[in-house]
């Protein structure tokens, strides 16, 4: 399917065009070739092809969606997708004036991208690509076909593009967090003495799916163990349970952690979870638009350092959205390997953060809270704000 531009083709651009154009200008990019699932989904207004939602490989190659967007020229935008996506367009038309739903692999997709760049006169342009999401065969084809073009890493520009959430995105993130929280609390209430970790993980998968979320993972511990992988280990009376699950709603991530106990918590457990909560609240107290990201981190770390549980407890915070670790990047290589490029930048309204304090107690086990908050002008709004004590 090849649909040419029309007069009314770009009246429904699903993103802030002026902001994207500005970010492209700052990055020295004339035209984008977005090839990751999350960035193509963003640029298409939330669309992701269900057939390849959980896989990429097909035949001898893989699915490679491409959104071509020229700075200041939405009438030259194109979407290059799989042949089956023609039916998607018939039911819910894509906004891009040009559409090619003709591909089964990486090379035919890359060829169509090159042809489109030639058609719009951008063969010698500064082209923004996603190196981590552009297969080597597709990259080689583009490089050879467009020898005059300058290929620029657009990763940072695209991360900045997604950092400030729209109201619609915030609602999806709120819903995702609520569904995950409900599912975790339901799973804790369902489990009994003798229930295994593997059974609990399967149960939360069902709980999330039945609520309309897409289950992605569950990291779970029982008793004094710090091992979060699935196993036949069974829950025993008096033991703690930590349940850290991630799932998504329309592509947006819910990622939280809650605690359970088989019986009643003793005074020591109450005290330990209170120490975790104190660090969480210290971080929350610094969350508002205008605060430097690093200042929020250092304040929480300072409170933790003064705590008696500091030797075996860690604090971490990161951005949330279409992926689990995205802008704002607040910490460097802690524990996920990336640069904390936003530590010296102010938090902005409608950024979304995951805030987590993790205790690996030597005898009582894995004790953790992880919460999701959206930055506001005066503070924050928490999503899934319940079940934060001993359940």
Automatic annotation (TrEMBL):
Gene3D superfamilies: Creatinase/methionine aminopeptidase superfamily (3.90.230.10), Creatinase/prolidase N-terminal domain (3.40.350.10). It holds the Pfam family Peptidase_M24. InterPro entries: Creatin/AminoP/Spt16_N, Creatinase/aminopeptidase-like, Creatinase_N, Pept_M24, Peptidase_M24B. Keywords: Aminopeptidase, Hydrolase, Protease. One of its GO terms (molecular function) is aminopeptidase activity. It comes from Mesorhizobium intechi. Residues 19-164 form the Creatinase N-terminal domain. This is Aminopeptidase P family protein. Residues 171-377 form the Peptidase M24 domain. The keyword Cell cycle does not apply.
